[in-house]
TrEMBL record:
Belongs to the multi antimicrobial extrusion (MATE) (TC 2.A.66.1) family. It is a multi-pass membrane protein. Its main location: membrane. The keyword Transmembrane applies. One of its GO terms (cellular component) is membrane. The chain crosses the membrane at residues 14-36, 48-69, 89-110, 158-180, 186-210, 383-403, 409-427. One of its GO terms (biological process) is xenobiotic detoxification by transmembrane export across the plasma membrane. This is Protein DETOXIFICATION. The lineage of its organism: Eukaryota, Viridiplantae, Streptophyta, Embryophyta, Tracheophyta.
Length: 468
């Protein structure tokens, strides 16, 4: 019990800045929506469509792909294989930048896409305008996601919070200046968003450059700094690069599928608690990944898992209080329409129950990412949300005539199915076996790019990322 308590304290120390950062980001999004509402009903409708489309088609993909480096970075830091952590950062940034190209093309042609499915022409035009000027944000996020994961796995979370907090202070005045003073409208909202993210990126890079130049680093360690260029591979190691990229992709693609499946199903029902829990779970994912690469792998891995579940009751309390006791107050923040308020008061307690299941479910997803098994999470998410939740929601909504309430019941059923399945997987985990696989995956070498051929073959034979 003492070790579990120690683990909870460690997770809390790392997770508090991340939780605060997620809440700051949520408040920034609220300000963005309020600004759209002030511009007019057309801008609000078009902006809402654009935000939903960018989340589904772009940000979810980048976030999911970046999650693939969680396992490699966490285990690399745990085994002190700093070369691998740095190379994983570089390769993930390159992967996200390449993925941003087709996403940007889709955003640029959003208006034609919306009109082809008979969407309102004016709303489609506004949404397309927002998406076109939000394309630079893909570049910012392609750099921010990997840097955040790298620093989070390193245990450096407070600089992340301060960078987001300071940049968020710039966001409202920039948005007001562009949207209202310069009369750019919805275009100003999109521009202010990516400017704010680039400011965050600027502060993070300044911090990393500062820590790089103010710490005495041995010459043979300097190349392992995240901002240092990767050493060029020798001709004999070039053939291994494809296999090493394959390891990263085999973690990134299942992680991307898992994140996208969940975002696409319940993105519009997320509240403050869901954002808070999701961010905390990302810090939870680094603990099992670190511990399974250290000396007491099996024991510490199990303790990390138990400690992770003890870290989530705070989220449950916040969610239940916010969605059940304050359901009327939340409704009146956005509308005075009696019918909408009545529906809100009925639905929010169900959403609170969804969050009750969401806490252990999201925590378990973090554990699976940390133990290099994102494929299992993707499979469970697919069956839970699309084979259980979606069919039940359709039947209750349209056949039984429950409307939106039926959709919420479907989401609740999906969350319950998901949490039961994923908890079963986590509690049946053989941590001794996982620690052996971690050693095979990130056993310390001089250069990850020059990894031993036998090591890579063993990783592949172990079905990395698709545990049975």
């Amino acid at each position: 019990m003492a070790e579990v308590t120690e683990e909870v304290k460690k997770i809390t120390d790392i997770g508090l800045p991340i939780a605060a950062m997620s809440l700051v980001g949520y408040l920034r999004n609220m300000v963005l929506v309020v600004c759209m509402g002030r511009l007019g009903s057309l801008e609000l409708a078009g902006g809402a469509l654009a935000i939903g489309f960018t989340n589904i088609s772009g940000y979810s993909v980048l976030s999911g792909l970046a999650s693939g480096m969680e396992s490699l970075c966490g285990q690399a830091f745990g085994s002190r294989n700093l070369s691998m952590a740095t190379l994983t950062l570089h390769r993930t940034i390159m992967m996200l930048l390449l993925a941003s190209v087709p996403i940007g093309l889709i955003w640029f042609n959003l208006e034609a896409l919306m009109l082809s499915i008979n969407q309102d022409a004016d709303i489609s035009r506004v949404a397309s305008l927002y998406c076109r000027f939000a394309i630079p944000d893909l570049i910012a996020n392609s750099l921010l996601h990997p840097l955040r994961i790298y620093l989070r796995n390193k245990g450096t979370t407070w600089p992340l919070l301060w960078s987001v907090l300071v940049s968020t202070l710039f966001h409202p005045p920039i948005m007001v200046l562009l949207s209202f003073t310069l009369r750019l409208g919805i275009t100003g909202v999109a521009i202010s968003t990516f400017i704010t993210n680039f400011i965050t990126l600027f502060f993070l890079l300044c911090y990393m450059l500062y820590t790089r130049t103010t710490h005495n680093v041995p010459e043979d360690e300097s190349r392992r700094k995240p901002l240092s260029p990767s050493p060029p591979p020798s001709p004999s190691s070039t053939a291994l690069l494809g296999k090493e990229w394959g390891v990263l992709l085999r973690l990134a693609i299942p992680s991307c599928i898992a994140v996208c499946l969940e975002w696409w199903c319940n993105r519009d029902t997320n509240d403050v608690t869901h954002v808070h829990v999701a961010e905390c779970a990302q810090c939870i994912s680094l603990d099992p990944s670190r511990e399974r690469a250290r000396s007491r792998e099996a024991e510490r891995g199990a303790v990390s898992g138990v400690g992770s579940y003890w870290a989530s009751p705070i989220d449950l309390v916040i969610g239940l209080i916010g969605t059940i006791l304050g359901r009327e107050a939340w409704g009146r923040v956005f509308t005075e329409d009696n019918e909408v308020l009545e529906l809100t008061m009925i639905v929010l307690p169900i959403i609170g129950l969804c969050e009750l299941a969401n806490c252990p479910q999201t925590t378990s997803c973090g554990i699976l990412r940390g133990s290099a098994r994102p494929g299992i999470g993707a499979t469970i998410n697919f069956y839970s949300f699309y084979m259980v939740g979606a069919p039940l929601a359709i039947v209750l909504c349209f056949v039984a005539g429950l409307g939106f309430l039926g959709m919420c019941y479907g989401l609740l059923a999906a969350q319950i199915a998901c949490v039961i399945s994923i908890l079963t997987v986590v509690f049946r985990t053989d941590w001794e076996l996982e620690s052996m696989k971690a050693k095979e995956l990130v056993g310390k070498t001089d250069h990850f790019a020059h990894a031993d051929q036998t090591l890579l073959n063993k990783c592949e034979e172990g079905n990395l990322g698709f545990e049975k």
